[in-house]
């Protein structure tokens, strides 16, 4: 593929907007979003705005999807959309069910297009920095052909196998991420409940081998009472549902995710869905008898 190929992007949420901006800096870009409120920053970067998802495909050679779930994707699969797929490449970067991804791949292929599954690992900051990890799946030749268009989004794009393999890798990675987040919340809550100074506890954690760039970011958010989403809590809960379903399908157990899922469900029901995923701390705090305070 030549670097002059036209690129499209559908879905300008927390992750989609910075991803689209990184693409717009390198390639001609056409975008669509359900809510037009996200268009201004893309217009400033030179992106073209169109009225429907089908028009994105018509104006592009390769189109990236970053939509919330399979229902959101299904809602754009109009007759016009499918007709516009012929000769085009569709890359789904969102997290969906494996069976849905396989069925979407079949629909794209039947329409005369190519499909690449590429869920990404990382939150808003890595998305802004173009440092996401892509888990590519599908036809290996097509996956290799689109690498120049994946580079502005990722620090690494790893080919995982046939369609479904990228999502399976994402479920496994998110299992570690989610249990780590809840474990960090429980650790902070215990330190707080014992009367420890949290800034001092942060210094101890940062000196330990368990520390990571992720833990440092999340602990700083807690100390600053900064609940603005880097990865929204509602998205994290959606991930727990996908992981639990994947574990059941694989006939294995995921006991920690089951506990995390319940905690995230409680947090969602408490109205924390638009906050950062570390806001699960507030639910962990309630269970320790601290009365549901919004403060660490």
TrEMBL record:
<comment type="similarity">
    <text>Belongs to the HIBADH-related family. NP60 subfamily.</text>
</comment>
<dbReference type="InterPro" id="IPR036291">
    <property type="entry name" value="NAD(P)-bd_dom_sf"/>
</dbReference>
<keyword id="KW-0560">Oxidoreductase</keyword>
<feature type="active site">
    <location>
        <position position="170"/>
    </location>
</feature>
<dbReference type="Pfam" id="PF14833">
    <property type="entry name" value="NAD_binding_11"/>
</dbReference>
<dbReference type="InterPro" id="IPR015815">
    <property type="entry name" value="HIBADH-related"/>
</dbReference>
<keyword id="KW-0520">NAD</keyword>
<dbReference type="InterPro" id="IPR002204">
    <property type="entry name" value="3-OH-isobutyrate_DH-rel_CS"/>
</dbReference>
<dbReference type="Pfam" id="PF03446">
    <property type="entry name" value="NAD_binding_2"/>
</dbReference>
<feature type="domain" description="3-hydroxyisobutyrate dehydrogenase-like NAD-binding">
    <location>
        <begin position="164"/>
        <end position="283"/>
    </location>
</feature>
<dbReference type="InterPro" id="IPR029154">
    <property type="entry name" value="HIBADH-like_NADP-bd"/>
</dbReference>
<dbReference type="InterPro" id="IPR051265">
    <property type="entry name" value="HIBADH-related_NP60_sf"/>
</dbReference>
<dbReference type="InterPro" id="IPR008927">
    <property type="entry name" value="6-PGluconate_DH-like_C_sf"/>
</dbReference>
<dbReference type="GO" id="GO:0050661">
    <property type="term" value="F:NADP binding"/>
</dbReference>
<feature type="domain" description="6-phosphogluconate dehydrogenase NADP-binding">
    <location>
        <begin position="6"/>
        <end position="155"/>
    </location>
</feature>
<dbReference type="GO" id="GO:0051287">
    <property type="term" value="F:NAD binding"/>
</dbReference>
<dbReference type="InterPro" id="IPR006115">
    <property type="entry name" value="6PGDH_NADP-bd"/>
</dbReference>
<dbReference type="InterPro" id="IPR013328">
    <property type="entry name" value="6PGD_dom2"/>
</dbReference>
<dbReference type="GO" id="GO:0016491">
    <property type="term" value="F:oxidoreductase activity"/>
</dbReference>
<protein>
    <recommendedName>
        <fullName>6-phosphogluconate dehydrogenase NADP-binding domain-containing protein</fullName>
    </recommendedName>
</protein>
């Amino acid at each position: 593929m030549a670097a002059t190929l036209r690129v499209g992007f559908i879905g300008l949420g927390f992750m989609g907007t910075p991803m689209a901006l990184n693409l717009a800096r390198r390639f001609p870009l056409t975008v669509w979003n359900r809510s037009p409120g996200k268009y201004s920053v893309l217009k400033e970067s030179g992106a073209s705005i169109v009225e429907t998802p089908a028009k994105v495909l018509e104006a592009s050679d390769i189109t990236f999807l970053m939509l919330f779930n399979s229902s959101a994707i299904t809602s754009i699969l109009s007759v016009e959309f499918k007709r516009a797929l012929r000769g085009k490449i569709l890359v789904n970067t969102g997290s969906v069910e494996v069976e849905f991804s396989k069925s979407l791949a079949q629909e794209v292929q039947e329409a005369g297009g190519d499909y690449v599954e590429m869920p990404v690992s990382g939150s808003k900051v890595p998305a802004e920095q173009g440092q996401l990890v892509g888990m590519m799946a599908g036809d290996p030749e097509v996956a290799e052909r689109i690498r120049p268009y994946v580079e502005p989004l990722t620090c690494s794009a790893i080919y995982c196998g046939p369609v479904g393999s990228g999502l399976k890798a994402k479920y496994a990675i998110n299992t570690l991420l989610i249990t780590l987040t809840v474990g960090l919340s429980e650790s902070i809550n215990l330190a707080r409940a014992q009367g420890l100074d949290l800034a001092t506890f942060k210094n101890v954690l940062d000196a330990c081998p368990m520390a990571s760039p992720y833990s440092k970011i999340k602990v700083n958010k807690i100390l600053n009472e900064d609940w603005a989403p880097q990865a929204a809590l509602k998205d994290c809960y959606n991930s727990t549902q996908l992981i639990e379903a994947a574990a059941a399908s694989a006939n294995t157990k995921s006991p920690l995710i089951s506990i995390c899922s319940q905690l995230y469900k409680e947090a969602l029901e408490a109205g924390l869905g638009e906050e950062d995923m570390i806001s699960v701390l507030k639910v962990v705090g309630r269970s320790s008898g601290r009365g549901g305070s919004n403060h660490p």
